[in-house]
Amino acid sequence: MSQEFDYDLVIIGAGVGGHGAALHAVSCGLKTAIIEAADMGGTCVNRGCIPSKALLAASGRVRELRNAHHLKSLGIQIGSVEFDRQAIANHATNLVSKIQDDLTNSLKRLKVDIIRGWGKIAGAQKVSITGDGGEKTITAKDIILSPGSIPFVPPGIEVDGKTVFTSDQGVKLESLPDWVAIIGSGYIGLEFSDIYSALGCEITMIEALDQLMPGFDRDIAKLAERVLITPRDIETKVGIYAKKVIPGSPVVIELADFKTKEDVDVIEVDACLVATGRIPATKNLGLESVGVEVDRRNFIPVDDRMAVLSAGEVVPHLWAIGDANGKIMLAHAASAQGVIAVENIVGRERIVDYRSIPAAAFTHPEVSYVGLTETGAKELGQTEGFEIATSRSYFKGNSKALAENEADGIAKVIYRKDTGEVLGVHIFGLHASDLIHEASAAIANRQSVQTLAHLVHAHPTLSEVLDEAYKRAI
Fold first, then answer.
1. How confident is residue 193, by pLDDT bands cut at 50, 70 and 90?
2. Given 1, 73, 199, 382, which residue has the most CB atoms within 10 angstroms?
3. Same structural domain for residues 107 and 164?
4. Is there a contact between 182 and 206 (Cβ–Cβ < 8 Å)?
5. Residue pLDDT, tens place only, 288-336
6. How far apart are CA 419 and CA 147, in angstroms?
7. Residues 166/275, Cβ–Cβ less than 8 Å
8. Which residues of 247-274 are buried (b: 16+ CB within 10 A; e: fewer)?
């Protein structure tokens, strides 16, 4: 370490991205500090991935045990299934505490200095920290910004945290409203609809765009809608947006046509979950002190190395990772970006391969994908001068899925016609979030369907769904 700096690296934000960067920095021999004003672990650990998966696990068991038809098909009969809402909520809370402690202890064990307070840039290679003990300034050879994101609440929606709330409050499961409106049908909306419907709530899902699950491949979305929404106690309103949401008992929601903006209806529900995405937490970071301006969506501009940009030029020794740079708003992407930033800090030139980063919605059954959608692949093909093709296989033809009597599902492979290179894979079905990683590795290595079709998969396993899709491609 240069003697002129307090630290080799200071990281602002101790979420999954900051944590991953800190661990890698220590392994690279950097004296590291991490600054956090709120909860260690950030959104993922405290208000996102971790508690929501605990709720999904518990509610999923309730759904499974209450599905008498499915159990009877396996030769099983059980009596009534009861659950304790508070105990389910406690399961999520306890898991958060454990993961948070594990994360904090891993930093302490590696002698990363944990500084509590609000960190912001105070000039080139300087960070000011405001906390209970007042304000102090430290210096660092390099600084990584990892401030994360917060839920986006559209204009006209008033949040009180009780009757109208975001996922931040939703993961606490403080109540089970008889009738809950969910605004948005992306990952967050889908997962909460899975939780609430399994635990007996009636749901109205409101999607402003002209189709449900707008971010997903259309073939996957169609089947997912048929399985995850249609047979459940979920009413859908598509092409409609919540013009105004007023908390209370009941919650009043004024609905309007998204295209014409004309009023169409007013509904009154017991509660409303606002699941309209997330925005970067980039305010009050001191970016102006080094001449950096956020873009029109408030993301911090970065290059492929995670270096922060000002007017297109690299700002020396300043990096930004995770949700705050807007490249791909996923916890594991933030962690990967943290590692990439550190690699570049120590002089090993690396960039992130975004196409190979998988994503998943942990519904029952799950949705996962990696790479391009069919629409995205066609657009790339038009730009670069190649044609694409697709192949599909179905869980209904998979022995393991049939043994589980969980045969609703599809795997779709998108590839180049000329070289066979896999461009995207989309899966809906049992354990889709686990199956997708084989495809992720294939895309990372730019493998072709011709190569993948000759790999050997254990029989009988769900992985053969992908095996079959690759074979059908050739």
1. very high
2. 199
3. no
4. yes
5. 999 999 999 999 999 999 999 999 999 999 999 999 999 999 999 999 9
6. 41
7. yes
8. beebbebbbbebeeeeeeeebebbbbbb
Cα–chain center distance at 377: 22
Residue with tokens 């600054």: 35
For 189-192, the CB contacts below 8 A with 24+ separation are 189/273, 189/275, 190/224, 190/228, 190/361, 190/363, 190/367, 191/52, 191/56, 191/361, 191/362, 191/363, 192/52, 192/167, 192/273, 192/275
| pLDDT at residue 188, as a whole number | 96
The CATH number for 175's domain is 3.50.50.60
**Domain contains 36:** yes
- Tracing tokens 């917060």 back to the chain, one arrives at 150
The token duo for 25 is: 């920095």
Alpha helices in 199-277 (DSSP H): 218-224
Structure token digits, residue 409 = 């599902």
Q: Confirm whether 65 is domain-assigned.
A: no
CB 226: neighbour CB atoms within 10 A? 12
Measured between its terminal Cα atoms, the distance across the chain in Å is 55
Together in a domain, 363 and 448: yes
Domain span at residue 255 reads 153-276
Q: How many domains does the chain have?
A: 3
State yes or no: is 19 an active-site residue: no
The two three-digit tokens of residue 291, written as one number: 């001449």
CA distance 35 to 137: 12
DSSP state of 7: E
- Residue 312 token pair: 């297109």
Whether residue 113 is found in the same domain as residue 16: yes
Same domain, 220 and 94: no
